[in-house]
Write a structure and sequence with these properties.
single chain; about 650 residues; DNA Primase, Chain A; DNA primase DNAg catalytic core, N-terminal domain; Dna Topoisomerase Vi A Subunit, Chain: A, domain 2; 5 domains; 20 strands; disordered C terminus
Length: about 650
């Protein structure tokens, strides 16, 4: 068994996907929000049935096995995904080959190694009596426990120009002598080292370092808090890199993820220290922003884990503006969003530090105000500040414009009606008039995603003829039947006058009219020819084409359900006979050939098909297929 097959065998796909997506069982599937597109209702299914394991999204077409999920979700290359899953399952890889990157220093592996090395360096500096003195003083002043410091891997960047630079030079020299891969250019690409007037200097100096992790717990960036008075900015983040994007990342998510999924509730705070204090107090479903406004990517990340989100922002003007922006971001997301205000104008860590603070915090969260009610209340205050009718009209128009652009029309009808009625009461304008005055959200032109980049959607194909539709249906039914009995590779079917044939010999890829059907049968036949049973996840693993992964999963589900309620052999035979009948009908009434088709090409095709054909009509079908390919080109992926 190959490394790939061993890893797929050992990986619980439901558990793997469930670490990042809240899944609910439904029949023999688990459903959840697809993490690969802006999913509004659960459209991704994880199927685990009779040893098969794959996921598929009915909306965007994402599909695959455990390796595919890790590659797509964590943006890993195949070898990296294989190593990750192997470590997760406790499997020792036997043989893994991979091509070296064109730029080794900027490979994700090299960048991760550099970030991990810097994280270790900063943690050692925090513990150093001299280098970490200022940072430790700040930690003690903020009452951060040693357990919290260790759990969140806090560190210190020394107050000097080249402490990390000197350390990196030693590391790179040692790595080179030991055959390891560590590059000084990697530290530069991550902003850890940058050019100075007299040579390279440290990117962070004299700051308390908060490592930022991805969902797997890998350090991918730093948030650095200034320790000297007047050192600006107060908080400094790592620059965006192949590992890190501020608009996609939430602090402490790797610690909070499981608690968020279990509680179906996520708390969002503004500061690193607030998040640390809450986790230390036993509130584990907490994440923090990175000093930037919440983005739609943040909303999508939390939406696939939680059903409710509570925003806990600082009780000042800046905090209220941040809450306003957050409400706007979450407005069109089908999730319950609330705003919590902590008592006495305290931050979360300050509230938790006083006696009874945890109880007060919990009460504030329970009393959180609905986000739309918050928006309406804020608008009422803004409306009252207008000194004229014209000013009130301008404020109302600005709000309607914003609501429309944010996708207000797509939110739950009851919540939408609540807002419109509240606004109507305030401004004395009918709710229907307000809704009509709201602009439609901007929509992008339709695109079809390819493996490289989006391309414009092609013109609609000609509608298929009834005979063509029947042919495609027969192809799908036969493929579904075969996948439904993939655990019985010894089955045979009777087609034409050839008698009972093994499945692999009953049809060839030329007998399937649709491009994806041909490609899928080629994969299935290769497995059948080995004489061993197989699973749909094997087929999924054998192809890198997303449409084939999705097609295999869909047809397996159809076929396995049919085969459970019927005798497998007669059902398979009926599907094969139906396809054979339509093939014979097509052979008797072949499509006309174009007169300008090259005769030499046709003669070569005929000779080859005479040798390959295994029953009457094969030549006519094959020539017709060659003619169609030569005259019309390949069948479009979206054609019927």
């Amino acid at each position: 068994m190959s490394d790939r097959d061993r890893i797929l065998e050992a990986t619980d796909l439901v558990a793997l996907v469930g670490e990042h997506v809240a899944l609910k069982p439904k029949g023999r599937e688990h459903l959840g929000l697809c993490p690969f597109h802006d999913d509004r209702s659960p459209s991704m299914a994880v199927v685990t049935h009779k040893g098969n394991a794959f996921y598929k999204c009915f909306a965007c077409g994402a599909a695959g096995n455990a390796i595919d999920f890790v590659m797509e979700f964590h943006k890993m290359a195949f070898p990296e995904a294989l190593r990750h899953l192997a470590a997760r399952a406790g499997i020792q890889l036997r043989n893994i080959r991979e091509e070296g990157p064109k730029d080794p220093a900027n490979s994700r592996e090299a960048l991760r190694a550099a970030m991990a090395a810097a994280n270790r360096f900063y943690r050692k500096c925090l513990a150093d009596e001299r280098l970490g003195a200022m940072a430790r003083e700040h930690v003690e002043r903020r009452a951060l426990s040693p357990e919290a410091v260790a759990q969140f891997e806090l560190g210190a960047s020394p107050d000097g120009w080249d402490h990390l630079v000197t350390h990196v030079e030693r590391l790179v020299s040692h790595a080179a002598s030991g055959g390891e891969t560590l590059h000084r250019e990697s530290f530069e690409a991550l902003g850890l080292v940058r050019p100075g007037q007299r040579g390279p200097i440290d990117g962070f100096r004299g700051r308390l370092m908060f490592p930022i992790h991805d969902e797997l717990g890998n350090c991918i960036a730093f948030g650095a808090r200034a320790l000297k008075e007047g050192d600006e900015p107060k908080y400094l983040n790592s620059p965006d890199s192949p590992l890190f994007s501020k608009g996609r990342t939430l602090y402490a998510l790797h610690h909070a993820r499981r608690a968020i999924i279990e509680a179906k509730h996520a708390l969002i705070v503004e500061g690193y220290v607030d998040a640390l204090a809450l986790h230390a107090a036993g509130v584990h479903n907490v994440v923090a922003t990175l000093g930037t406004a919440l983005t739609k990517e943040h909303a999508r990340t939390l939406q696939r884990m939680a059903e409710r989100i509570t925003l806990v922002f600082d009780p000042d003007a800046a905090g209220e503006r941040a809450a306003d922006r957050a409400v706007e971001t979450f407005l069109a997301v089908p999730i319950d969003v609330r705003i919590a205000k902590l008592p006495d104008g305290l931050d979360a860590d300050e509230l938790l530090a006083r006696e009874g603070g945890r109880g007060e915090f919990d009460a504030a969260i329970d009393a959180g105000e609905d986000a739309l009610a918050w928006m309406v209340r804020r608008f009422r205050a803004d409306l009252r500040s207008a000194e004229s009718m014209s000013g009130r009209q301008q404020r109302l128009q600005a709000l309607l414009q914003k609501l429309g652009e944010l996708g207000f029309r797509s939110i739950d009808p009851l919540r939408r009606r609540f807002v419109l009625n509240a606004l109507s009461e305030m401004v004395q304008v009918p709710a229907e008039t307000l809704e009509r005055s709201m602009p439609l959200p901007r929509t992008a032109a339709p695109v079809i995603a390819t493996q490289n980049e989006p391309v414009a959607a092609p013109a609609a194909a000609e509608p298929p003829t009834p005979r063509h539709r029947a042919r495609l249906t027969a192809e799908r039914n036969f493929l579904a039947a075969v996948l439904g009995v993939s655990d019985r590779a010894d089955l045979r079917v009777t087609v034409g006058d050839a008698g009972a044939l093994p499945l692999a010999e009953a049809f060839t890829e030329e007998h399937f009219d649709h491009r994806d059907h041909r490609a899928l049968w080629t994969l299935i036949a290769a497995r059948l020819e080995s004489g061993k049973s197989f699973r749909v996840q094997d087929i999924v693993a054998d192809t890198n084409v997303p449409t084939l992964k999705l097609l295999a999963g869909e047809l397996y589900e159809t076929g396995s359900r049919r085969m459970e309620s019927a005798d497998a052999t007669p059902a398979l035979q009926a599907a094969a006979a139906d396809l054979d009948r339509l093939l014979r009908t097509a052979a008797e009434t072949p499509l006309p050939l174009r007169k300008d088709l090259d005769g030499t090409t046709l003669q070569a095709v005929l000779e080859r098909r005479r040798k390959e054909g295994h029953r009457p009509g094969a030549i006519a079908r094959a020539v017709r297929g060659e003619a169609r390919t030569a005259t019309a080109g390949p069948i479009p992926a979206d054609s019927p």
